[in-house]
Amino acid sequence: MKKRIAVLPGDGIGKEVTRGAVDVLKAIGERFGHQFYFSYGKIGGSAVDSFGTPLPDETVELCRESDAVLLGAVGGPKYDQLPVHLRPERGLLKIRKELGLYANLRPTLYYSSLAESSPLRKEIIEDVDMVMVRELTGGLYFGKPSERSTQNGQDVVVDTLFYQREEMTRVIKLAFDLARQRKGKVTSVDKANVLESSRMWREVAEEVSKAYPDVTLEHVLVDNAAMQLIKNPRKFDVVVTENMFGDILSDEASVLTGSLGMLPSASLSEKGPYLYEPIHGSAPDIEGQNVANPLASILSAAMMLRLSFGLEEEAKAVENAVNEVLNAGYRTKDISSFGKKQVSTTEMIEEVKATI
Amino acid sequence: MKKRIAVLPGDGIGKEVTRGAVDVLKAIGERFGHQFYFSYGKIGGSAVDSFGTPLPDETVELCRESDAVLLGAVGGPKYDQLPVHLRPERGLLKIRKELGLYANLRPTLYYSSLAESSPLRKEIIEDVDMVMVRELTGGLYFGKPSERSTQNGQDVVVDTLFYQREEMTRVIKLAFDLARQRKGKVTSVDKANVLESSRMWREVAEEVSKAYPDVTLEHVLVDNAAMQLIKNPRKFDVVVTENMFGDILSDEASVLTGSLGMLPSASLSEKGPYLYEPIHGSAPDIEGQNVANPLASILSAAMMLRLSFGLEEEAKAVENAVNEVLNAGYRTKDISSFGKKQVSTTEMIEEVKATI
Ligand SMILES: CC(C)[C@H](C(=O)O)[C@@H](O)C(=O)O
Ligand SMILES: CC(C)[C@H](C(=O)O)[C@@H](O)C(=O)O
Fold it and tell me: Are residues A76 and A1 in the same domain?
């Protein structure tokens, strides 16, 4: 198989961890006889430095010509004082819109080897295996108006939560399709007791569910979901929700299993290319120290193999390699504990490659 | 001191737990020589049953004539199929608006005697002592438009996040005043990298902070806050945020210390009366079984003594009584564990009264 992959390392540790994913994809290519071509583009702060914008047209072009996109992370203190439209995260928001990445998938998985790094008790998180599906191009993120004005001499401000019914339908369908391949349960999160958009969301979820008699649908209010995620995370299989609720809940879910540095994500569009990135940020405090955990980026590459290229066996090979390396006791600093072999970013990458 | 207290037991276990708070207030009145007059009103489902509306004018009148309001909880399966404007929670939203209750205060406190009931490890939650201040009458909850329409043949929906600058200022000021009496730190939560309203919020927080050189201000993005609350809850003192973020984060915070059935809340207005209620819901599944935990309602009464009546010593007396009863091993079912004396709602109330 021949595939073109756009690589956007971005800022901070983005470069260091993305190298890991690229190396691992190369190793997979060699072992399974695929040809992956990598082309590099800029996004975020490093794009502002070179092009004066966090998402140059060149980068968008590059992505459009590729079969999949691998992203590192964006942001850094150097860019915090820039005007809003030049901030690194604008690059992220814009690429979502440009590529139509309407669904963000974030698996949260329990690793028995990492249970000690979790703030939660082992008996709460044991066997947690859920996927959060977050709508990614609608809601409060892009609704207009989003502006200040003066009303009766008062300074006021407005943001707009806007959805087309069709935007709800496609992401909820995706959640049901996913649940069908998993444990057969969808938890739809909304605030239907307050928001009209949530009442529509709930209706759409009910409607979509009719075509999936084999999948169970439950509705949970967002405040209750924020509690249940901590009290009883095992009860979730696929969780689907709108953009802002998803932003909050998926970050909450990411700390449950203590494996923040290991969590991958995928953002899907209707026609591709899809985009893959670790859920952690650019961590400027540890940039260049060769201590970042490359496993989230490597596991994002596994998701790419599975979802963009349909290479299930190859995806499993990456995931198994990661598990073996963990079971052998190798740990980067963030997940290290007493009695384990603490390794650098590059050493960890070498271990995973060697195991593949 | 003579004070009139409006009591709105509401639905489900609301009646059972509110009785506890009333009994304890009576005991305090006797011991300290105050006269508390209690008048009862309806809200939520029980108001729909009697008056055909979740918040009758009589109830609003009663509250306005009182010095403080004690609320139980609203809601139940019986009312779930009613049209939106008749749902029990409409009563809650409407009373907030009618009484101008713009700030909801929720303390989250670590009880060493309950550490085992928490889903989090003891070393994470030990000594947690924070107050969440949630803006309660603005944002997405009341903004207009909140409606569906058709655009280019597409079904669309909009909700509106609206704030006056002044609404931000008063609640943020309140958070700073509170921090001054506590550990001197305010964490302001927003989503300034996406929302214009959050950028204004952050500006207002900076502005207000100038008058409080003795208080430290930090800004945290809402998604990061959702993580930090679980990873490192001890780092928080006073957390202040807008309505919807506050709804989600305060429920998240409420499960940290394992004492959900023990957490009180206060909602403050500019001129009073203030409203006090446990943060738990109406729990229809255990209604009428005499097993509900009355301590959240009793501790809400303590907040009333302190915040509405300025009776600090009396408030402490209630809080100390609750601690003593817990230390003596008494537990309602929700917080009970091996080796403890499991008691009913009424027995727990008797124990607290006896200790006062
Ligand atoms: C950087 C920010 C705009 C972004 C978001 O809110 O979507 C981030 O938090 C994320 O979740 O990818
Ligand atoms: C019942 C509901 C409308 C309410 C809210 O969202 O404010 C509740 O969740 C709360 O936090 O008091």
Answer: yes
- Chain A interface includes B147 (CB < 8 A): yes
Judge whether A75 and A57 are in contact, CB under 8 Å.
no
Given CB atoms, is A153 within the 8 Å cutoff of chain B?
Answer: no
Asked if residue A74 lies in contact with residue A89, where contact means CB atoms within 8 angstroms, the answer is: yes
A75 and A1, same domain (yes or no)? yes
Distance CA B146, CA B143 (A): 7
Q: Tens-of-pLDDT digits for all 356 residues of chain B? A: 999 999 999 999 999 999 999 999 999 999 999 999 999 999 999 999 999 999 999 999 999 999 999 999 999 999 988 998 999 999 999 999 999 999 999 999 999 888 888 999 999 999 999 999 999 999 999 999 999 999 999 999 999 999 999 999 999 999 999 999 999 999 999 999 999 999 999 999 999 999 999 999 999 999 999 999 999 999 999 999 999 999 999 999 999 998 889 999 999 999 999 999 999 999 999 999 999 999 999 999 999 999 999 999 999 999 999 999 999 999 999 988 888 899 999 999 999 999 99
pTM, full prediction: 0.97
A292 plus A341 within the same structural domain: yes
Question: Which residues form the domain of B31?
Answer: 1-101+264-356
For chain B positions 260-319, those within 8 Å of chain A (CB to CB) are 260
Decide the pairing of beta strands A341-342 and A330-331.
parallel
Residue A163 bridge partners (DSSP): B157
**Are B14 and B94 in the same domain?**
yes
Ligand 1 pocket residues where CB is under 6 Å: A 89, 92-93, 247; B 193-194, 223
* Selection from A315, A245, A254 nearest residue A114 by Cα: A254
Q: Which residues are paired to B154 by β-bridges?
A: B151
Instruction: Let me know whether B208 and B238 are in one domain.
Output: yes
Q: How far apart are CA B224 and CA A117, in angstroms?
A: 18
Does B192 fall in a domain? yes
B220 touching A, CB under 8 A?
A: no
Residue B55 lies in a domain: yes
Provide the number of structural domains found in chain B. 2
Give the span between the Cα atoms of A285 and A89, in whole angstroms.
Answer: 18
Instruction: Give the end of a domain, one of A255, A289, A323.
Output: A255
> Hey, of B90, B167, B230, B263, which one would you mutate to test binding to chain A, going by the most A CBs within 10 A of its CB?
B230
Does B328 touch chain A if contact means CB atoms closer than 8 Å? no
Distance from CA of A197 to the nearest CA of B (A): 6
Decide which of A212, A233, A255 is a domain's last residue: A255
Which residue, B176, B221, B328, B91, is CA-closest to A247? Answer: B221
Whether A177 and A293 share a structural domain: no
Residue from A194, A200, A219, A232 whose CB has the most chain B CBs within 10 Å, to mutate: A194
Do B86 and B16 share a structural domain? yes
Ligand 2 center–CA B18 separation, angstroms: 19
Tell me which of B189, B191, B194 to substitute to probe ligand 1's pocket, judged by most ligand atoms within 8 Å of the beta carbon: B194
Hey, is A81 helix, strand or coil?
A: coil
B288 contact partners, CB below 8 Å, separation of at least 6: B16
CATH number at residue B276: 3.40.718.10
Return the half-sphere exposure (C-beta side, CA atoms, 13 A cut-off) of residue A258. Answer: 24
